[in-house]
Amino acid sequence: MNYYVVIPAHNEEAFIEKTLQSLLAQSLAPKKVLVVNDNSTDKTETIINQYLLASPIFEKINATSTTDHMPGSKVIQAFNKGYNTLDSDYDFIVKLDADIILPNNYFEVVAATFETNKKAGVVGGFIYEQDSTGDWKLNHPMNKDHVRGAIKAYSKKCFEAIDGLKTAMGWDTVDELLAKFYGYDIITLTNLKVKHLRPTGKAYNKKAKLLQGKAMYSMRYGLIITLIASLKMAWMQKKPKAFVANMSGYLTAYKEKAPYIVTPREGKFIRSLRWKGIKQQFI
């Protein structure tokens, strides 16, 4: 199968070489790896340029955006700038972070999954992060049927059905909800262990912590589901302030009549899916 990899990269000099090397070592090589150098001010571009010489699979484009490392808008703007330069001759498209080490057979297994399961829309492994003792531990959200935003692979048909990735906080949740809306499955592969070199959220601007509630509003969760989801998130993370921040973000978006990122019909499906998940936890 043919696949493209798009990597948004902003000041990743400490990690990106290991990411590019792991792509070079794949048993099923990508047709193209497009690195979007997004306003980097360190040695990121120098490292990318070295890999342009190392293999013809690597390509680079430069982008200029805000220097704030905000989730959603910045990274997906860079991804979209790269994706829009690609042709349509691929079977699946990958959005990959620049601080990832993949096992050598990663995309061979992902490709086989797409080939054998025609309903597979989003496929990925599980992310491990290093703890203070140096051990690699599973770091995954509450829902194990979720592919982390750092390692998303989409079938071409699914990606086109969901109309690509939304330039907003919550993009890596709404993509899977919309994939389900259009009849696709989300496949997580426990045998694919991915190393994430920088703990999630470490580089985010402090303002980013207030955006989760806004994302829930933009996905048309509604007040009650947002309340339940925020309580669960705060409980699981042992961070009471997360509940306050989420609800504040939601109510602010409501007062400002912020734009939605899904249609009313898609929102109805999302709420139904969320209520189904909530009810199953009490059965």
TrEMBL record:
GO molecular-function terms, A-Z: glycosyltransferase activity
UniProt cross-references to Pfam families, sorted A to Z: Glycos_transf_2 (PF00535)
Keyword Disulfide bond belongs to the record: no
Location of the Glycosyltransferase 2-like domain: 5-147
Gene3D superfamilies named among the record's database cross-references: Spore Coat Polysaccharide Biosynthesis Protein SpsA, Chain A
SUPFAM superfamilies: Nucleotide-diphospho-sugar transferases
Keywords: Glycosyltransferase, Transferase
Record-stated family: Belongs to the glycosyltransferase 2 family.
Protein name: Glycosyl transferase family 2
